[in-house]
Specification:
14-stranded antiparallel barrel; disordered N terminus; 49% strand; mainly beta; 14 strands; Porin; 12% helix; single chain
């Protein structure tokens, strides 16, 4: 009877979540929330909510992946994004009991220093720009195979003299069948709003409804992941507002298949044992957005990871922006093994 109640509760949560996010497309603020802080996720295409591993960093996109098995884990990551832009994150998890865990984390994106000039191009000094996030996350077993989670986030951005504060929450559920090595997840990310806006008008957060599955092959050391993201905006296309409708012409009219694949990320992992992996990802939306430029790597990503005693070390490469390729490293310290 308990399982039936849990399933009913789960269904209600998902329906409420979908109602909250329905129709929330358009221009948004705090775009850095979409940048992965996990090297493994970065390698799998930038979005993945269903990979189940004892890697604390993967919970950044789905709090339902957090559990007591991550007790006393520390996660650190750093990304050389583009040019002088750098991203870093850290988090720590501890078990609450046999069914739940809590984690605390911080994240920053530093855009570097800029010249401050007057209207007639006189240099007046310099200024910096950065985004920061602080979060508290909880994950709890709903039943033997279902787990739910929530991630409360405090967001702060400062660009020269302009500042903004926001509060948001990520909600997620995960179903994991260990015998079949099958995982299914649904998340609603960045539900919330600005407490203080940059200007007079408040802007929306990049709310994102996601669905993902991961399945290991029965007779080969591979795992395939499919992730559908940004499901509240069917077009899901980057539009340059400086280009007129006439200039865009037929490029505006994409067929059903192109629109569908802009929502799907494909990831594949080679898992010969529990201590090593190779990962590849393909993000069609990124390749589509950079169709007017970019290089061979556009839309593709790759990475690897290895566990050495008490350390889990990861590295990945991806092209998140037309300006260049991004490199990311991550490390998980398994303090419960010391």
């Amino acid at each position: 009877m308990r399982l039936n109640i849990n399933k009913l509760t789960l269904t209600i949560i998902l329906l409420i979540t979908f109602t909250l996010v329905k129709g929330e497309s358009g221009n948004t603020v705090f775009g850095f929330l979409d940048i992965p802080v996990s090297s493994r996720i970065n390698a799998l295409g930038g979005v993945n909510i269903s990979v189940v591993e004892r890697d604390l960093s993967i919970t950044s996109q789905n709090p339902a992946l957090l559990g007591p098995e991550m007790d006393k884990n520390v996660s650190l990551s750093y990304m050389r994004y583009i040019k002088d832009v750098n991203l870093g994150s850290c988090s720590y998890a501890m078990a609450l009991n046999d069914n739940g865990a809590i984690a605390f984390g911080a994240q920053f994106l530093n855009y570097g220093d800029f010249k401050l000039t007057s209207e007639d191009n006189q240099i007046l000094g310099s200024f910096s720009a950065k985004d920061m996030l602080f979060n508290t996350m909880i994950g709890y077993n709903i039943s033997e195979r279902w787990r739910g989670g929530a991630n409360a986030k405090f967001i702060y951005s400062v660009y020269e003299s302009y500042t903004s504060f926001a509060m948001a929450v990520d909600l997620g559920v995960n179903y994991f069948n260990e015998e079949r090595d099958f995982s299914f997840s649904v998340t609603a990310n960045n539900l919330g709003g600005q407490l203080k806006s940059f200007h007079e008008n408040r802007e929306k957060l990049p709310i994102d409804l996601r669905v993902g599955i991961s399945q290991a092959l029965a007779h080969a050391p591979f795992r395939i992941s499919l992730t559908a993201f940004n499901l509240t905006d069917w077009d899901n296309k980057f539009i340059d507002n400086s280009i007129s409708d006439d200039e865009l012409g037929s490029n505006k009219k994409d067929n059903f298949a192109k629109k569908m694949f802009r929502h799907i990320i494909i990831g594949m992992e080679y898992l010969p044992n529990d201590n090593f992996y190779l990962a590849l990802g393909y993000n069609y939306k990124k390749r589509s957005d950079f169709s007017g430029g970019g290089g061979f790597m556009t839309g593709f990503s790759a990475g690897t990871g290895i566990i050495i005693k008490k350390f889990n070390i990861n590295a990945s490469v991806a092209q998140h922006h037309i300006s260049g390729t991004s490199f990311m490293i991550g490390m998980n310290l398994l303090l419960n093994r010391f």
